[in-house]
């Protein structure tokens, strides 16, 4: 890889994720100050959508930390960060609806969600072990096959990142359908809610792009090492 290409690569893997994080935080901050006309808190939005879809068994919990919102398919719980749980903002409604979108996916047996969930233990193990094999193979060229093992392990993590994309996009689509059809937000607020969800989606796109680029770079390094043997 030439110096120019390497600098471009560094710019992508460093700048793009930072930009995505800054974008989602600034967008969230802006729309967390705008109250919805319906005046529902994130917890109320989540409960309203869950009940409308017959998911009375799914519970809602408050979680600590900024944007720590998530859905746990094992415990059937929607976790909303304190700000989204209590506040009556467009951002809070959008995020709450998005997490409930995952609960609806789970209830309907959405294939991509189930596949991603099955990859979680594999991705956790592989992401921790991959670099041990990769670095060992790079520094000890006589054992270059160790690098190949590391690349295979990393590929499992990359697959997880890629599968995450349709899961997140689909949850956002479901979220918008729900908040609009149930009258949780009005027409003038719909565009703002989409901006919040689109900004959040960019973080997943950035993470997937970086993961794929890093995997490709390591494959090229491995190819060069083995071709020199």
From TrEMBL:
<keyword id="KW-1133">Transmembrane helix</keyword>
<keyword id="KW-0812">Transmembrane</keyword>
<feature type="transmembrane region" description="Helical">
    <location>
        <begin position="146"/>
        <end position="167"/>
    </location>
</feature>
<feature type="transmembrane region" description="Helical">
    <location>
        <begin position="6"/>
        <end position="24"/>
    </location>
</feature>
<keyword id="KW-0472">Membrane</keyword>
<protein>
    <submittedName>
        <fullName>Zinc metallopeptidase</fullName>
    </submittedName>
</protein>
<feature type="transmembrane region" description="Helical">
    <location>
        <begin position="201"/>
        <end position="222"/>
    </location>
</feature>
<feature type="transmembrane region" description="Helical">
    <location>
        <begin position="119"/>
        <end position="140"/>
    </location>
</feature>
<dbReference type="Pfam" id="PF04298">
    <property type="entry name" value="Zn_peptidase_2"/>
</dbReference>
<dbReference type="InterPro" id="IPR007395">
    <property type="entry name" value="Zn_peptidase_2"/>
</dbReference>
